[in-house]
Batch of 2 targets.
Target 1
Amino acid sequence: MNLPDKVYALAFGAHPDDVELSCGATLLKIIDEGHRVAVCDLTHGEMGTHGTPETRRVEALQAREIMGYAARDILDLGDSELFYTQENLNDIIRIVRAYRPDVVFCNPPEERHPDHVKASRLVHDACFYAGLRRIETSLDGTPQLPHRPRHLLYYIQFRQLEPDIIVDVSSTFEHSRKGVTAFGSQFYRNDQNDEPVTLINRKEFLTGLEARAHSLGEQIGAKYGEGFLLAGTLAVHEFSTVFLPVP
Ligand SMILES: [Zn+2]
């Protein structure tokens, strides 16, 4: 791995496509605002009903191109084996210290898929431990400096969690759908007649996601929205940049 440059936002997902499905439009918005974004998938998604680890890796890298991420790393922490071990924590700490993000996104703590819950805990704790200088890690033989991200945001997946904040993604939502459909092995296609039906490859799944983005957007007077839960309390340092005046 080459030593990467710092990014503003780093988004983790238990499986390739978690990030695009849940916060892709927000990541595009951040990129449009002139910041660098990286993504890290914790597994290859090798236990999924459809696609092989190799096809999912190729799809993840295609999605990176479409979305314009500065980097995408795919760790191999083991789909359905995403256990809370020191080794897995250290792998995530190493990524956090490598990219030195200000904001981290990850799976929510309450979810249908157990891997999402496990990923959430691992990333939450790794972000804390990454700031402790007595926990030593290195990358390509180079010792890493401690780094703790300023904000941790949980995106929303299957469970309809009540968001703490909703991001107006009206300008980027359509583009973000292209990042989702890069994962062609996972979602509905016209030629998939004989394949087993899963929750996410039903024809209705992607339209359901769009309906949710509409519904969240509705709550803030926007066409599309993506919702997030805050892992901590949001500190307001410059009041009028958070609570904008009426245009
Ligand atoms: Zn997933």
Target 2
Amino acid sequence: MKKIRLGRTNLMVTRTSFGALPIQRVPEKEAIKILRHAYDSGINFYDTANMYTDSEEKIGKAFTPTMRSNVIISTKSGGTDYKTVKKHLDNSLVKINTDYIDILQLHNPTELPDPDSNDSSYKALIDAKKEGKIRFIGITNHKLHIANLALDSGLYDTLQFPFNYLSTEAEFELVQKSSDLDIGFIAMKALSGGLLKNSRACALFFRQNPTAVPIYGIQSMEELNEWLSLENQAIEMTPELEHTIAVDKRELSGNFCRSCGYCMPCAVGIEIKTAARMDMLLRRSPFRPLLSDDNYNMMMKINDCINCGLCKTRCPYELDVPNLLKRMLEDYKEFYELNK
Ligand code: SF4
Ligand code: SF4
């Protein structure tokens, strides 16, 4: 399988890599089967996080100690102080059943930690590296200015950031800057959180941007086999693919909910990361299941919004979430009446 050098880490990772967030939703036996099939097929890079419930444990169970040296594992800690990051790392080592993590990433910090403070999350990473518990230091983010600051700081070996063919010019510049600085670029949201449906178009995009390593979120054998089959094909731009990409760009440009979930929990329990993009889900997926009683009730919960503004302050895309939700509710009601 073709590999990409992940910047100054010099790690050679497969250009089709594995995002292990979705295997949380898969029963353990099946998750292990999927991970082993990925391994047997040559995928060598697996990205997880301590906050992805049992994702780390499933990885730990799938890859036996003899397989460990053949895989590169990145995980994340959302800790913002020394003690928490060290605690998260020790938990990750136990769950993944390993004595080292290849890349430990600070998980979406709202600001960069002070590298000189003895209490900081960054100092925890430095010490963990000295102790041999981690090999490289990474950071993930959804905010462009923080991602740029992280690159400028020179303190991180890798940056993980959303990147796909809907990305803006400034985001393409970020990828270029990362490459110029020899910092590994890990692309999350390669399918924009499931809104991009054409895997061939997505795979082609990464062939055209080969310094970015996509970690495709995989939750079934079928999805895995689709990526594996694309891996072995030459992918050319065709008029059909051009059309799909143009339609996606037109329909999904601008400010839309990426379903990252950083705005949650909502003060009154609204399922924001689904509700805030209901218009796109209704028009880009089979819509019948979205009109079920459960989904209807989920959408009606928007009426309970107390306008506390919490979600708005947390959204890394600076969306006006309460108003977006109100728009989604109106759209949903109209769609429901027409199609139920
Ligand atoms: S503003 Fe509304 S949707 Fe946002 S957190 Fe508060 S109650 Fe929830
Ligand atoms: S509203 Fe913002 S923070 Fe919440 S899921 Fe959507 S993009 Fe993420």
